[in-house]
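We give the chain.
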Amino acid sequence: MQVILSTYGSRGDVQPLAALALRLRAHGVPVTVCAPPDEEHARFLGALGVETVPVGESVRALVTGKLPVKGDIPSRAAVLAGRFQEAVSSLAGPGDVVVATGLFPTVAGAQAAAERAGARFHHAALQPTALPSPHHRPFEYPMLPYPPEVTDVRELWDLNIATMNTLFGEAVNGARAAAGLPAVDNVRDHVNGRSPWLATDPVLDPWPQGSELAVRQTGAWLLPDERPLPDGLSAFLDAGEAPVYVGYGSMPLPGAPDAAEVALAAVRAQGRRIVLARGWAGLTGADEAADCFVVGEVNQQALFPRCAALVHHGGAGTTTAATIAGTPQVVVPQIVDQPYWARRVAELGIGAAHDGPTATVDSLAAALGTALAAPARDRAREAAALVRTDGAEAAARLVLER
């Protein structure tokens, strides 16, 4: 048996699969990862010794380029689904296991390949809003909004079937046709299957009872990071009071060109120093003041515990890393599942949820005030002790159990 892991997304999608790949390899299982061709992904996976097959176009180029309009999505999705179907088909055989995460059409392409090959398939969601539940709303695609008068969650999930068919029916059934498989009417439920996996932490994201899906929640797939902090950053941290970290990861922030200036002013309004992560938005401290240190790729596991608070976009991986660090956080959510994680941070009392994707100096300073206060600090430390760290091992055992 070999295992093919498939994903399409940013670092937050690739890193969990790397964690699972290493756990499977520790059990003696051969693993190949199908992932986007971005140089940063290739460098990251190569350093871990993970065998990788590049598939599709650069995610960074896709995210930072021109935003797609409604008419573009079905055709672009069909191309991605087809490429992943071809890539996984070239690897999978009878008795193998395929585990897929990432963008829906790429999961569908991997699934079609697994079905054609006679391989076992698992869809692993890295966030809950992709999975139908009466306890949360489906993600709303801006180009296909739900009728404003519909507020019942179950009815919204029923409408979501038509939305997914409209956007991704061509992609799913095109990949199935290429694999010699019949078309399906409900692409969402077919791709999810009856028992999808949920790779999130039960403290941050408790999957409720009473859902129709038999979801198997493993915990987040965490990858230990032993990299030291850069010498300059270590010296900066040692030289004064704990700073506030601000970084928006793979979010390009086209609607907030002044995000760095806003962050600097808001953090300084709290009397704090700042560590500013460039990310895909290219944030930088233009004034080059001594109270600001700008970083690129950095070990979050080493940095986050040394910060007073963390301002970020609310990706699943960053939110989990912040929670494990025991550091209060401010989530400024941008897209997809990020509003969900912002709400969970506020509900748990481990930080603050910013109202909307674009921060002002006053709004960010106010949210930071909440995060830096004693109740959030205390609750963040308490929550850190509750987060499970064996999610990748739990997922590896699910692969091996049959």
